Automatic annotation (TrEMBL):
SUPFAM superfamilies named in the record: SH2 domain, SH3-domain
Keyword flag Transferase: no
InterPro entries: SH2, SH2_dom_sf, SH3-like_dom_sf, SH3_domain, Tyrosine-phos_adapter
SH2 domain sequence ranges: 19-112, 195-254
Classification of source organism: Eukaryota, Metazoa, Ecdysozoa, Arthropoda, Chelicerata
Keywords carried by this UniProt record: SH2 domain, SH3 domain
One of the GO biological process terms: cell migration
Listed name of the protein: Uncharacterized protein
UniProt cross-references to Pfam families, sorted A to Z: SH2, SH3_1
Domain (SH3) ranges: 123-185
Length: 254
């Protein structure tokens, strides 16, 4: 069989975001699976304990032979665990059990979509900023960082430790919570970078770069368009200015 014909016969893969139903109870999940009336159908939902704010994911599955089953999925240190098996993403978990048995002779086949798209609560990530620099202990999962580094928190662990990703280095690891503080929602996320200057005029920007010399640069907020920026760059004998436009989670220079 050629590679081309093999690819054409491969079943389409369901995606986690297409079957995410948010925070719903077990009975409601079972009702939605039964209403779907599809063989080996499934959905992903959130669940929480009544006595605590802790949440976790659940894979709810309606098998042709086994009936309805619910599998707890733990999100820990940027991995998703079902039992002792770890996956980097929910999509990877679903893909694995699309081609491998979840239960004996049964695999994930038909994703049950919610009536309306549901936002993943994990998308609103908790963001903290370092108030002091820190050097990690060698051969540990700790992160080294500078004062002002911005972190996205993935898990709140025991004894004051957090599992985070450093925005500057993109490294993930352990950070002690006492070294971080909450980021002001009104504060620009770029405030932590040494090249960002939110409180200087364009004339001051030009003057600073003229003194700093060729190759120096800085970024400041746009005077005319809120949410956009201006890049000032000392090139040759002059300081040039470039517009940076924010489009969603991306920056476009033009």
């Amino acid at each position: 069989m050629s590679q081309k014909s093999f690819a054409s016969e491969e079943p389409s893969l369901p995606a986690a975001h297409l079957c995410f139903h948010g925070l719903i109870e077990r009975r409601e999940a079972e009702r939605r699976l039964l209403d779907a009336n599809q063989e080996n159908c499934f959905l992903v939902r959130e669940s929480k304990a009544s006595s605590s704010p802790q949440k976790w994911f659940v894979l709810s599955f309606f098998g042709r032979k086994s009936g309805v089953n619910h599998f707890r999925v733990q999100h820990f240190c940027q991995h998703f665990y079902i039992g002792s098996k770890a996956f980097p993403t929910l999509d990877a978990l679903i893909r694995f059990y699309h081609f491998s048995d979840l239960l004996r002779g049964e695999r994930l086949q038909n994703a049950v979509a919610p009536k309306e798209p549901v936002a993943d609560s994990a998308a609103a990530a908790r963001r903290l900023v370092a108030v002091l620099p820190y050097a990690k202990i060698p051969d540990s999962d700790e992160l080294s960082f500078k004062k002002g580094d911005l972190f996205v928190v993935h898990n709140d662990l025991q004894n004051g430790w957090l599992w985070c990703t450093n925005d500057r280095t993109l490294e993930s690891g352990l950070v002690f919570a006492e070294l971080l503080e909450t980021v002001d929602d009104k504060c620009d996320e770029n405030e932590t970078h040494e090249w960002f200057h939110s409180k200087i005029t364009k004339e001051e920007a030009v003057d600073r770069l003229a003194k700093a010399g060729v190759g120096s640069f800085l970024v400041r907020p746009s005077d005319t368009q809120a949410g956009n920026y201006s890049l000032f760059f000392h090139i040759g004998h002059s300081v040039q200015r470039f517009r940076i436009e924010r489009r969603g989670d991306r920056y476009v220079m033009g």
